[in-house]
Amino acid sequence: MQAVIVYDSLTGNTRQAANYLADELYRAGIGSNLFKVSELNEKAVTEADLVVIGSWTDGLLVVGQKPGRHKRFKQLLPQLGGKRCAVYCTFAVNPGKTLEKLTKTVEAHGGQVIGGMTIRRDDLEGGAAELANRIVTAV
Questions:
Q1: Which DSSP category does 139 fall into?
Q2: Which DSSP category does 12 fall into?
Q3: Which pLDDT score, from 0 to 100, does residue 32 have?
Q4: Can you give the CATH number for the domain in which 119 is found?
Q5: Please, are residues 6 and 40 in contact by the beta-carbon 8 Å criterion?
Q6: What DSSP state is assigned to residue 3?
C-alpha cells in the first residue's frame, strides 16, 4: 500500500507531524510520500491508495477556527475520485471545527474520508502515532 501525505505548515508543527506520521505508517508497512500542498504532485496522488491531508489551525483562540490557508487546499487539491483519505490538524489551544471543515473540503474534491484526528502541538509524535494506528485499523 502507498500513501501520499499532503500538508500545509506555518510554524513547522504540521510538517513535523507529517514526518512522524510517515515514519509510523512505514513501520506498519505503508510507504508514503510527503508533499506541501503548494508542491503537490498530482501523479503521486493518482497512484496512491491513501491520501492523508494535514493543516494547522487558524483563527482566534476559542472561536473562528479553520484550516490554515484553507483556500490553498480548495484550489490545489486535485479531484480524488473516491480515494480513501484521512485528515488531521495541529493546534495549540482549541481546534474548534477545523477537522470538520477540512473533511468537507476533502469530500468536495471527491475523497472518501475514513477518519481523522486533531493533534496537539506539544505531542506531535504521540498524536501521529495514534493517527497512524487509526489509519491502519481503518484500511
A1: -
A2: S
A3: 95
A4: 3.40.50.360
A5: yes
A6: E
Residues of the chain scoring pLDDT < 70? none
User: Tens digits of per-residue pLDDT, 78-105?
Assistant: 999 999 999 999 999 899 999 999 999 9
Helices 124-138 & 13-27, crossing angle to 10 degrees?
50
Q: Let me know if 118 is exposed, middle or buried by CB neighbors in 10 A (0-12, 13-18, 19+).
A: middle
Q: Which domain holds residue 111?
A: 2-138
User: Do residues 116 and 103 make contact, with C-beta atoms less than 8 angstroms apart?
Assistant: yes
How many residues are recorded in the chain? Answer: 139
DSSP-assigned states of every residue in 20-88: HHHHHHHHTT-EEEEEEGGG--HHHHHH-SEEEEEEEEES-SSS--EETTHHHHHHHPPP-TT-EEEEE
pLDDT at 132: 96
pTM over 0.90: yes
Report pLDDT for 134: 95
- How many domains are there within the chain? 1
Beta bridge partners of 55: 89
- Give me the pLDDT at residue 70, please: 86
